Amino acid sequence: MAITKIQSESLNLADTYDFTGTVTGAGESNKPMFRVSGGATSVSDRTNTKLAVSSEVFDTDSCFDLGVNNRFTPNKAGKYFLNGRIDAGSTNNTDFFVILFYKNGSNIGGSASINRDYNTAVASQIVEANGSTDYFEIYCEQQTGGTISISLSEFSGFYIGN
């Protein structure tokens, strides 16, 4: 079925249409996006500690600085969805650990869904970035009474819009 003129009252949404050429304005891009993981970080009791990042799973726009700063600096202004998952190894049911997100070196909060059976925590947050100098990092705080090893299973994020 060739479409030469679209009129809202004559477009049948149940029909199948074959388009040639380029269709613009259909959909959106969630780039930049990234996903990294890391090894174990020694985290002292009641101390916010930046988690070690050791590998990139993907980084669509090279916005994650792996190695030197271990942080995400988006190159596009707008809102971003950040996600984190950590593993605390062997702890007991009275231990507490939480994921914290930092923006430009300051704690902007965090949360955790802690599964004590598996010693994992998951957190997500929507943040806003200016697209040039704002950056985001992942930290952890724990309350076990000692020092424990925390592994970064995932730190990821993607653009969601203005």
Describe the SSE topology.
Blueprint: E1 33-37, E2 40-43, E3 49-50, E4 55-59, E5 64-65, E6 71-72, E7 78-87, E8 96-103, E9 106-107, E10 113-115, E11 120-129, E12 136-143, E13 148-161
Please explain how this structure is put together.
The chain has 162 residues and is mainly β. The protein has one domain (33-161): Jelly Rolls. Helices cover 0% and strands 46% of the residues. It has strands at residues 33-37, 40-43, 49-50, 55-59, 64-65, 71-72, 78-87, 96-103, 106-107, 113-115, 120-129, 136-143, 148-161. Strands 1, 2, 4, 7, 10, 11 and 13 form a 7-stranded antiparallel β-sheet that branches. The chain has a 4-stranded antiparallel β-sheet with strand order 3-12-8-9, with no helix packed on it. The radius of gyration is 21 Å and the shape is elongated. The two termini are 37 Å apart. The model has no long low-confidence stretch (mean pLDDT 86).
Query: How are helices and strands ordered from N to C?
Result: EEEEEEEEEEEEE
Question: Structural class given helices, strands, pairing?
Answer: mainly beta
What is the tally of helical segments?
0
CATH architecture: Sandwich
CATH level-3 fold name: Jelly Rolls
The dominant shape is: elongated
| Cα-to-Cα separation, first versus last residue | 37 Å
Portion in strands: over 45%
Record field, number of beta strands: 13
Question: Radius of gyration from the CA trace?
Answer: 21 Å
For the biggest sheet, the summary is: 7 strands, antiparallel
Integer count of domains: 1
Approximate helicity band: under 10%
CATH class: Mainly Beta
Low-confidence sequence ranges: none
Mean of residue pLDDT?
86
